[in-house]
Design a protein that fits this description.
Blueprint lengths: L15 H5 L9 H17 L4 H12 L4 H39 L7 H11 L16 H10 L3 H37 L1 H8 L4 H25 L12 H18 L2 H30 L8 H6 L3 H16 L1 H4 L6 H16 L3 H10 L2 H12 L4 E5 L6 H10 L3 E4 L7 E6 L8 H4 L3 E3 L6 H6 L6 E4 L6 H9 L5 E5 L3 H14 L4 E4 L6 H4 L5 E5 L13 H5 L2 H21 L9 E6 L8 H10 L2 E4 L7 E2 L3 E2 L2 E2 L8 E3 L1 H4 L4 E8 L6 H4 L9 H8 L9 H15 L27 H5 L20 H34 L15 E4 L2 E4 L3 H11 L1
Parallel strand pairs: 5-6, 5-8, 6-7, 8-9
Antiparallel strand pairs: 1-3, 1-4, 2-3, 9-15, 10-15, 11-14, 12-13, 14-15, 16-17
Bound molecules: S-adenosylmethionine.
The site of S-adenosylmethionine has 18 residues, from helix 21.
Protein name: SAM-dependent MTase RsmB/NOP-type domain-containing protein
Main location: nucleus
GO cellular component, one term: nucleolus
């Protein structure tokens, strides 16, 4: 019989006995008691701060300790001390682990940049974290500026310290997590031992509870250590081996007293310490094997003949720049290092100084290296399925049957295929000839995806040759509506023609007009694509001449033309379009001068706003570049790089026109004012022509084409099919002819020569022709007079005209330089008149 736990009956009175009687204590068996404590301890390890845990600790500590217990407690105190020391060492190991982890994921490893960075990390202040962040380009320009331009070492030090403290915590936590998980798993395997242990003396329960306390303290200590500064790390080089020996001896004694989970814990800690030691040694070896970078003298620089040496120096300088304050030569400024790096990069990768400088403004040193390396490699061959004729699955199947090894280009495209290898030329397969696909770079799919053309729309591709993007637009329009395909280069338009026939495109009208004047001819488009001519800085792997030939004048010329084309393209758009009013501007250049800067210019001069491109990858456009600050919405634009996306370097921006009116403040301020008059002249008629430059090639061909044929419409197609009448609710204001005709007035069939003119082009074409005729008549009369004078003077017949300067053969018509009638012709005319 015993007392009841809770007396339900009301007490009769506060008797002395009743008052002093404590609550009954249930006597557990030894097994039960041990089990209870073990469970409690395990719970305490996981949640040391929980209420039940604290209660157990209180309960345990209130007990009086036996002699044996005290001895063991002492021992544990000593072990605890050792554990603390191990913790300190572990931190160093974690640091090493962190470096390894970074190496695993950092793309810089490909170029061995990380190694040199590590080296300089080691050489520098020990304990200093890495300062060069990962290669996400989000703030690439900013990073670039920090590393290339900043000379403020104090700031840098602070930044690094903060970054380091922040950066360490997760590694520590994850290590601990792993640690505990391993401990748990080992605990399972030791469960048999646990059962045996619990059968030993009842006293042990209390001791174990104490050891849990100790363990808990250890974790607390660990956290504290993780948070505190690690200035005194260098002093912690204790003898690990000694520790190991001691540990081994003590292990035998301690393990008897320890729970399996504690033993496992201890084992793991030891393993961690061992690994850390090894990592430390490895790092020290690596650092010792390489010397600190010494800035080369002018003589040494002049003597450099081996590209391998240049390559090593590039990596060394990047290593110094990544932790400048620690690794620099105090007598050298950051500028000197940056200059050396630029020169070496120019030498190693064959760039001119100007162009390399531009790239250094965009990228951080590490990312620049990745870009340069990636630009040396060819991009994978990609093709676009022509959805007008086949499906991607079917096309892939038939090409695989021909021994072509391919895959879908990525989740982002439904039409693209990447070709790894092919036993047959891709431009000569029956599928190619049947128009089932177009050979097209992966990045060139992006602007059209951003444009998102719809059926039955009226769309303009302003700079279209050779027609990769145009044919994609036509396919998305499903051969409905009208697609105006324009290019200033007639020769290049021939390729468009061939491609369109092969691909079965029937809704296109091809024109050959200077894009700058397109709005004089036609307006009111639902969508416009401006894939502008550019320096080609994103496609260096395709045209390596860009590296050495581009100058500031080329870049300036490009962005001037791009600005003018963009303003015209916006003017061609209809803000009142029921479906669109969208414009996509793209270039295969990565220079902000040709991209964000051009867009920013247009935002200030027309009623347009930036809208999302709809592309779910790519790097955000820059909002700041050097001293320039662009519109904050520039983030909506997208940049693509060879080193991050394995695509050609590309820029895509999408604009929406919200009003057709041109802001008054800028109407009085023509764009031409931005471009020096002599520069404009040069753009139209380059005096010096570099044949390696496709940009000039276009101009030569354009001039040649103009000489041969003055008709702008080179080819017209049959009337577009599948045009659903009445699907358009409202159309932008059109001229009489365009209102009736879905092509907007441009003839869609027959020979261009038979057509009077394009819509709105009558005036534009007739006026200059009249002017030219008048001038020619004047000129003829002048020459006639001169001839008469000469004949009178010499008294003999003129068999040919006097020699005329080359420039006299050139005439300006409608603001465009055209080759007029040659002198021979003039003389012929003169003869006729005579
Ligand atoms: C980047 S390429 C276009 C590539 C084309 N969008 C494609 O996907 O195949 C630029 C084109 O602009 C043309 N171009 C250059 N100046 C022009 C101008 N003033 N007006 C119209 N087209 C021009 C060039 O002839 C060249 O074909």
């Amino acid at each position: 019989m015993g007392r009841k736990v809770n007396l339900e009956r009301p007490k009769k009175g506060p008797g002395r006995k009743a008052r002093k009687q404590p609550e009954p204590v249930f006597q557990f068996s030894k097994d039960e008691s041990a089990y209870r404590h073990q469970v409690a301890r395990m719970f305490c390890v996981a949640r040391p701060a929980s209420q039940s845990c604290l209660a157990i600790h209180r309960e345990d500590s209130n007990k009086k300790l036996s002699r044996h217990q005290k001895e063991r407690l002492k021992k544990r105190e000593i072990t605890k001390q050792k554990l603390k020391e191990e913790q300190k060492k572990k931190k160093t190991a974690k640091k090493a682990t962190k470096v390894v982890v970074n190496n695993t994921f950092d793309p810089a490893e490909i170029f061995n940049v990380e190694k040199s960075r590590q080296k300089y990390q080691q050489l520098g202040q020990k304990g200093k974290p890495q300062s060069v962040a990962s290669n996400g380009h989000q703030n690439g320009a900013e990073k670039g500026r920090n590393l290339f331009d900043s000379d403020n070492e104090m700031d840098e030090d602070e930044r690094q310290t903060t970054a380091g403290v922040k950066g360490k915590a997760p590694v520590k936590k994850s290590q601990m997590k792993k640690f505990l998980q391993q401990a748990e798993s080992e605990d399972e395997s030791d469960s048999d031992e646990e059962d045996v242990d619990s059968d030993v003396e009842g006293e042990e329960d209390d001791e174990d509870a104490e050891s849990v306390d100790g363990e808990e303290d250890d974790y607390d200590d660990e956290e504290e250590l993780g948070e505190e500064e690690e200035d005194d790390e260098d002093d912690d080089d204790d003898d690990e081996e000694e520790d190991d020996d001691d540990d081994d001896e003590e292990d035998a004694e301690d393990d008897e007293d320890m729970l399996p989970i504690e033993a496992a814990n201890k084992k793991l800690k030891k393993r961690m310490a061992r690994e850390q030691k090894e990592a430390d040694e490895e790092m020290a070896d690596a650092a010792g094997n390489r010397e600190r970078f010494v800035f080369p003298t002018d003589e040494e620089l002049a003597q450099t003949t081996n590209l391998q040496d240049v390559n090593i120096r590039i990596k060394d300088v990047i290593g110094v720049l990544s932790d400048f304050s620690a690794n620099r030569d105090p007598e050298r400024s950051r500028c000197e290092y940056v200059d050396l790096l630029r020169k070496d990069l120019c030498l190693y990768y064959s760039y001119n100084d100007y162009f390399m400088g531009l790239l250094m403004n965009i990228f951080s040193p590490n990312e620049l290296l990745e870009f340069l390396e990636a630009s040396e490699l060819q991009r994978p061959v990609t093709i676009r399925t022509n959805s007008l004729k086949t499906r991607r699955r079917d096309l892939a199947q038939s090409l695989i049957n021909r021994g072509i090894n391919l895959d879908p280009i990525g989740k982002w495209s439904k039409e693209g295929l990447v070709v790894y290898s092919s036993q047959v030329p891709l431009g000569a397969t029956p599928e190619y000839l049947a128009g089932h696909y177009m050979l097209q770079g992966g990045s060139s799919l992006l602007p059209v995806m951003a444009l998102a053309p719809e059926e039955n729309e009226r769309i303009l591709d302003m700079c279209a040759a050779p027609g990769g993007k145009s044919s994609h637009i036509a396919a998305l329009m499903k051969n409905t509506g009208v697609l105006f395909v324009n290019d200033a280069n007639k020769e290049r338009l021939r390729a468009v023609l061939g491609n369109f026939h092969r691909l079965g495109i029937q809704n296109a009208v091809i024109t050959c007009v200077d894009g700058i004047k397109y709005s004089d001819i036609m307006k009111g488009f639902d969508r416009v694509l401006l894939d502008a001519p550019c320096t080609g800085s994103g496609v260096i792997s395709k045209d390596p001449s860009v590296k050495a030939t581009k100058t500031d004048i080329d870049v300036q010329r490009c962005y001037n033309l791009q600005r003018r084309l963009l303003l015209t393209a916006i003017d061609c758009l209809s803000a009142s379009s029921s479906t669109g009013g969208y414009l996509v501007y793209s270039t295969c250049s990565i220079l902000p001068e040709e991209n964000e800067w051009v867009i920013d210019f247009a935002l200030k001069r027309r009623n347009v706003r930036l809208v999302p491109t709809g592309l779910d990858f790519g790097v955000e456009g820059m909002t700041r570049y050097g001293a320039h600050r662009f519109h904050p919405m520039m983030k909506l634009t997208r940049r693509f790089y060879p080193h991050t996306h394995n695509l050609d370097g590309f820029f895509v921006a999408k604009l929406q026109k919200f009003s057709d009116a041109i802001p008054k403040s800028v109407t009085d301020e023509p764009v031409e004012d931005e471009v020096p008059e002599e520069e404009q002249e040069e753009m139209k008629l380059p005096k010096k022509i570099d044949k390696r430059d496709w940009y000039y090639k276009d101009i030569i061909e354009e001039r040649k084409a103009q000489r041969e044929d003055t008709n702008h419409v080179v080819k017209v197609f049959q009337k577009p099919t599948n045009v659903k009448k009445g699907t358009k609710k409202s159309k932008p204001p059109q001229t009489e002819s365009s209102a009736k005709d879905p092509t907007g007035g441009v003839p869609v069939s027959g020979d261009a020569k038979q057509q009077p003119s394009m819509n709105g082009g009558k005036k534009q074409r007739t006026v200059p022709v009249k002017k030219t005729e008048a001038r020619e008549t004047e000129e003829a009369l002048r020459l006639k007079k001169k001839l008469q004078q000469v004949q009178e003077q010499n008294g003999k017949k003129v068999g040919g005209g006097p020699r005329q300067s080359k420039n006299n053969g050139m005439k300006k018509a409608g603001g465009r330089v055209q080759k007029g009638a040659s002198f021979k012709k003039k003389v012929g005319k003169v003869r006729k008149v005579k």
